[in-house]
Backbone:
């Protein structure tokens, strides 16, 4: 490989990691605020339990919008290229988050406050819907031979990196300011910071080149008018299995990242700072272990790793709430750090597995469709369903049963999908300069 090609690949790795981090920063910031702040600012007339449920409902709206973003950005990503669609998605997310930072609360504009909050959450969801699959493809399609999982892991690292950044900014702001000031106006500072961060992301992202796979598709005149229609031709059975195998990781991750904050503070009486610090430390572990898991996937194969990771996810999901319910700080730290270690095993290769379901000329559309619907059915609904179960039963037994069943279903789908999985679709490696 020439030095010029290697330099280009490093730029792509940095650009996909940075852009994904900033998009997930905005998305997770909303989740943290939903668990801790939005019920007071936008739903003050409701009881604490109902207010939390309402706040998580607006959180879920972002996931409902993600398939729409995936469809729109996927279509144009397969028609005009990956690069420009990723630039637009980053801008969209930044605008949505910044406007949340200046949105008046219920006490100022009444019912319009939650309505506008939902509208801006939709904007966030559309932006992330375009980013999620697109950044994965940008890295995957630039990857040198034998390092496809490693490169596809860079945008996946953006998920825990975004969480670490969001929780750190949220934690510092809430620690520096008096509690009343933070609840009143200080929570807006992390959202307003999005404007500056997006500028940094755009500068980095504009410097990367279009992917070799898309360039080859253009050269061979393989661009189709309706790429999603072509992507669906891989068959309903394979689409359904790939969708279902992707659901568990998202569901467990959002119970760990979002619902546990609300449950820990409201039901267990745990200190908010303690939970934020521990979840952030778990995300650091998640971030740091992705290069390890992707290197194993490149050397040993990602299918076996994904299956064993799915088994570990099921076991830890079943144990998670019983561990939290001990109220022992040491045991809770173990429960959360365990999530940080286990979640990345399947998360780091999930995007590459989905991408390999489709040929290069329709890969953005197909990947976006599956990844965003998996996120909706998994992460989007998990905090909402879990809160509803908890409010109805007053215990986490039903929540544990629900999340364990989701993990078992995804594991079964993975076994069936890998048994008849096709040879990975060709991805053109960059040509040496």
Residues:
């Amino acid at each position: 490989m020439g030095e010029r090609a290697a330099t280009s690949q490093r730029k792509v790795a940095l650009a996909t990691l940075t852009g994904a981090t900033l998009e997930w920063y905005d998305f997770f910031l909303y989740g943290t605020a939903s668990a801790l702040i939005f019920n007071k600012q936008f739903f003050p007339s409701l009881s604490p339990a109902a207010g939390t449920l309402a706040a998580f409902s607006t959180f879920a709206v972002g996931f409902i919008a993600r398939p729409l973003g995936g469809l729109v950005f996927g279509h144009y990503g397969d028609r005009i290229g990956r690069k420009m669609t990723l630039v637009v998605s980053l801008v969209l997310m930044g605008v949505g988050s910044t406007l949340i930072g200046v949105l008046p609360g219920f006490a100022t504009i009444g019912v319009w406050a939650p309505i506008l909050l939902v509208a801006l959450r939709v904007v966030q969801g559309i932006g992330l819907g375009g980013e999620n699959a697109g950044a994965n493809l940008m890295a995957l399609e630039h990857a040198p031979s034998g390092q496809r999982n490693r490169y596809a892991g860079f945008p996946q690292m953006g998920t825990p990196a975004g969480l670490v950044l969001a929780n750190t900014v949220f934690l510092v702001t809430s620690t520096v300011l008096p509690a009343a000031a933070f609840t009143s106006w200080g929570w807006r500072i992390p959202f307003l910071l999005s404007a500056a961060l997006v500028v940094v992301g755009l500068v980095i992202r504009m410097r990367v080149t279009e992917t070799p796979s898309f360039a080859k598709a253009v050269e061979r005149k393989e661009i189709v008018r309706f790429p999603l229609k072509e992507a669906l031709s891989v068959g309903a059975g394979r689409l359904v299995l790939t969708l279902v195998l992707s659901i568990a990781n998202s569901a467990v991750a959002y119970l760990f990242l979002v619902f546990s904050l609300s449950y820990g503070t409201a039901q267990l009486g745990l200190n908010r700072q303690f939970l934020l610090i521990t979840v952030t430390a778990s995300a650091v572990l998640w971030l740091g272990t992705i290069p390890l898991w992707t290197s194993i996937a490149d050397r040993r194969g990602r299918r076996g790793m994904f299956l064993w990771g799915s088994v570990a996810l099921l076991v830890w999901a079943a144990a998670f709430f019983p561990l939290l319910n001990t109220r022992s700080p040491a045991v809770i730290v173990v429960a959360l750090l365990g999530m940080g270690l286990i979640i990345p095993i399947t998360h780091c290769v999930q995007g590459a597995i989905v991408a390999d379901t489709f040929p290069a000329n329709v890969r953005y559309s197909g990947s976006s469709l599956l990844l965003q619907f998996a996120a909706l059915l998994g992460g989007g609904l998990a905090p909402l369903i879990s809160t509803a179960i908890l409010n109805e039963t007053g215990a986490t037994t039903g929540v544990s049963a629900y999340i364990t069943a989701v993990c078992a279903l995804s594991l079964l789908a993975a076994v069936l999908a890998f048994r008849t999985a096709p040879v990975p679709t060709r991805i053109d490696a960059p040509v040496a300069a």
